[in-house]
């Protein structure tokens, strides 16, 4: 396929994806903003005042980066899983499968769509957080790159979920039973320093723990994890998930009979 | 002569073990208007699914304009457009967006895409509906939208899976005209249908498929030649005298009751002589019709041969 064709195809998918979540913004952008806003008010403000310091920072300052990451993770994942599954469900995915668009462009298009939503919600949440805490970003490069990479990881994960899903139940099971616990136990709300040694070890197996803490490092300049190691983990996840998606697309898993 | 599509020994066994295609081979020449005819469940959509890569074949090969669809996916896919049997566009998108998105998948730059989009939406009578969400279209409009979508990249080969199912007579006629027009302009067309009349109206060549096998593959003209005799039912108000018979040898007369007569006419004979004989006997014929749909009869006989 000519490079120019590929670019047009990629752009077409991205525009379509952005148009989709923008059209249904009441379902896609408002609820996460409200939820995270409530977290700010309840945990950060009301409960947070009682908690005092966490990991050497005001509790509000501590959870803001965690909550921004949480919104990016959830929305990147959920945009891809619901959009791609709905394409499967309505069979409009056939438009793509019959067309000459190569698999990696299809995948990249949906990933970019998921990132767009994740980052859009992340931005809304960040703007909201300015009402609650004064944050100065300590390391812009780390902050931005960890958000982008995390967003890619979860968009890819959402894509795999959508490929295997056969019903609307299947696209809510993983977010409910896997993603949410991993996020909540991933150091969004607390520093692992508080945990007994065994649970510290368990946290070390949770990839979200590294992402949240690296992001927190970028903003606050302090973190529970080794930053280089965290980036390494992110890259490994992206490579493994991307290749798995390509393999599944080539086989036609969940798409071709 | 260029071969638009060549299918060799296509076998498809679905995951549940059902063998939907049992070794199908077909060739369609460039410029042809080709019908794939068969009853429900014969394997028509499965065949189209394999060509368009929505169905993974078990074995066999498909070539489009001389290129294998597996090894030359990009080139072959640019060459054909598919109108599926069932609606497969997003119900929430607008008509124009659906066609524009498709154009994007085929790498058309925006300006060209917009021109083509307008051209085909106009041709298919959907331009007024361009800003409507697709779910608000009627069934016939949805079908036309899928045709516009399949044409936006102007493929050399157009494959339509039952394009006229559930479409009213007027629309069916205009679709036939439209398809004939694009075929005249050089697009090769393959369509599946349940109706031999439709194939007769449109197509030059035909394959009949049943239970995953091709039971007939010939030109429409040869197939119709097989229809060498026809039975007419004549109604009259005049009394048919007892013992009345026709002078012609190979016309069989059967007096059903005093007002209804069946005449079997062999191929190549004129029905004029029947009327002449009746008027000579002072029998006034009020109406005449075919006893059975001759095409359906032929079709059924082909399928019985397969069973
Ligand atoms: N995904 C599938 N899994 C199992 N069997 C299938 C599948 N899809 C189709 N079949 C079976 O394969 C056979 C051929 O189906 P196909 O859809 O190709 O028929 P068709 O000729 O298009 O029929 P129709 O005129 O009703 O559209 C049918 O018996 C059908 O039940
Ligand atoms: Mg069918």
Report on the structure:
The complex is a heterodimer of chains A (257) and B (307). Chain A has 257 residues and is an all-alpha fold. In chain A, a hairpin with a 2-residue loop joins strand 1 and strand 2 (57-58). In chain A, helix 3 packs across helix 6 (103-129) and helix 4 packs antiparallel against helix 6 (103-129). Chain A has one domain. Chain A is globular and about 60 Å long. Chain A has a two-stranded antiparallel sheet. Chain A has helices at residues 3-23, 25-28, 30-51, 59-89, 93-98, 103-129, 140-164, 170-184, 197-203, 207-220, 227-251, and strands at residues 53-54, 57-58. Chain B has helices at 44-51, 73-79, 95-105, 110-123, 139-151, 169-184, 196-202, 220-225, 272-280, 294-306, and strands spanning 3-13, 19-29, 33-37, 59-64, 67-68, 80-83, 157-161, 188-193, 205-210, 213-219, 229-236, 251-257, 260-266, 285-290. In chain B, helix 3 packs across helix 4, helix 3 (95-105) runs parallel beside helix 5 (139-151) and helix 4 (110-123) crosses helix 5. Chain B is α/β, with parallel strands linked by helices. In chain B, the strands form 3 sheets. Chain B has a 6-stranded mixed β-sheet with strand order 6-7-8-3-9-10, sandwiched between helices. A 4-stranded antiparallel β-sheet of chain B has the order 2-1-4-5, covered by helices on one side. Chain B has 2 domains: 3-224, P-loop containing nucleotide triphosphate hydrolases (Rossmann fold); 229-306, Alpha-Beta Plaits, CATH 3.30.70. The longest helix of chain B has 16 residues, at 169-184. The interface between A and B is medium-sized, with 32 and 32 residues.
The structure class of chain A reads mainly alpha
Distance between the termini of chain B: 35 Å
Low-confidence regions of chain A: none
Under CATH, the topology of the largest domain in chain B can be stated as Rossmann fold
For the record, the count of structural domains of chain A works out to: 1
Overall domain count of chain B: 2
Helicity level of chain B: 25-40%
Average residue pLDDT of chain B: 88
What is the H-and-E element order of chain A? HHHEEHHHHHHHH
Largest interface: A-B, 32 and 32 residues
**Order of strands across the widest beta sheet of chain B?**
6-7-8-3-9-10
Oligomer: heterodimer
Task: Evaluate the radius of gyration of chain A.
Answer: 19 Å
Strand content of chain A: under 5%
Helix content of chain A: over 70%
CATH superfamily membership of the largest domain in chain B: P-loop containing nucleotide triphosphate hydrolases
- Ligand inventory: adenosine-5'-triphosphate, magnesium ion
Low-confidence runs of at least 5 consecutive residues of chain B = none
Structural class of chain B: alpha/beta
Q: Any idea what the radius of gyration of chain B is?
A: 24 Å
- Average pLDDT confidence of chain A is 91
């Amino acid at each position: 396929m000519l490079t120019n064709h590929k670019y047009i195809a990629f752009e077409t998918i991205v525009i379509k994806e952005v148009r989709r979540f923008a059209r249904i913004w009441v379902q896609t952008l408002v609820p996460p903003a409200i939820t995270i806003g409530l977290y700010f008010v309840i945990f950060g403000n009301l409960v947070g005042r009682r908690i005092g310091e966490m990991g050497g920072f005001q509790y509000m300052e501590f959870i803001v980066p965690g909550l921004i990451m949480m919104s990016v993770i959830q929305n990147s994942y959920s945009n891809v899983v619901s959009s791609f599954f709905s394409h499967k469900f309505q069979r409009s995915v056939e438009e793509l499968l019959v067309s000459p668009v190569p698999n990696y462009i299809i995948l990249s298009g949906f990933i970019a769509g998921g990132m767009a939503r994740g980052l859009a919600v992340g931005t809304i949440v960040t703007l909201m957080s300015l009402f609650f805490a004064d944050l100065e970003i300590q390391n812009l490069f780390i902050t931005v790159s960890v958000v982008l990479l995390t967003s890619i990881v979860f968009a890819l994960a959402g894509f795999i979920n959508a490929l295997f899903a056969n019903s609307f139940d299947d696209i809510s099971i993983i977010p409910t039973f896997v993603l949410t616990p991993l996020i909540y136990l991933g150091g969004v709300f607390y520093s692992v320093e508080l945990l007994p040694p065994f649970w510290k070890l368990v946290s070390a197996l949770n990839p979200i723990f590294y992402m949240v803490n690296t992001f927190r490092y970028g903003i606050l300049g302090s973190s529970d994890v080794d930053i280089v190691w965290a980036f390494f983990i992110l890259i490994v996840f992206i490579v493994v998930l991307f290749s798995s998606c390509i393999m599944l697309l080539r086989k036609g898993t969940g798409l071709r009979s | 002569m260029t071969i638009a599509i060549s299918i060799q020994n296509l076998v498809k066994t679905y995951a549940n073990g059902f063998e939907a295609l049992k070794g199908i081979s077909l060739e369609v020449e460039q410029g042809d208007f080709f019908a794939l005819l068969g009853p429900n469940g014969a394997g028509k959509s499965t065949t189209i699914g394999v060509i368009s890569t929505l169905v993974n074949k078990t074995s066999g090969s498909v070539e489009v304009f001389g290129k294998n669809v597996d090894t030359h996916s990009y080139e072959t896919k640019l060459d054909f457009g598919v109108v599926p049997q069932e609606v497969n566009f997003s119900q929430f998108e607008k008509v124009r967006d659906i066609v524009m998105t498709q154009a994007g998948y085929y790498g058309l730059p925006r300006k060209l895409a917009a021109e083509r989009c307008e051209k085909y939406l106009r041709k298919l009578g959907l331009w007024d509906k361009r800003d409507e969400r697709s779910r608000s279209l009627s069934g016939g409009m949805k079908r036309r939208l899928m045709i516009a979508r399949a044409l936006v990249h102007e493929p050399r080969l157009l494959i339509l899976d039952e394009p006229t199912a559930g479409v009213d007579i007027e629309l069916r006629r205009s679709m036939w005209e439209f398809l004939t027009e694009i075929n005249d302009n050089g697009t090769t067309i393959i369509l599946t249908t349940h109706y031999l009349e439709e194939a007769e109206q449109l197509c030059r060549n035909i394959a009949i498929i049943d239970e995953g096998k091709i039971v007939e593959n010939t030109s429409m003209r040869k197939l119709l030649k097989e229809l060498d005799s026809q039975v007419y039912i004549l109604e009259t108000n005049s009394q048919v005298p007892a013992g009345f018979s026709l002078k012609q040898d190979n016309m069989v007369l059967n007096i059903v009751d005093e007002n209804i007569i069946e005449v079997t006419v062999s191929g190549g004979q004129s029905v004029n002589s029947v009327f002449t004989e009746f008027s000579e006997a002072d029998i006034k014929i009020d109406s005449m019709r075919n006893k059975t749909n001759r095409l359906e009869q032929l079709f059924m006989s082909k399928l019985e041969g397969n069973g």
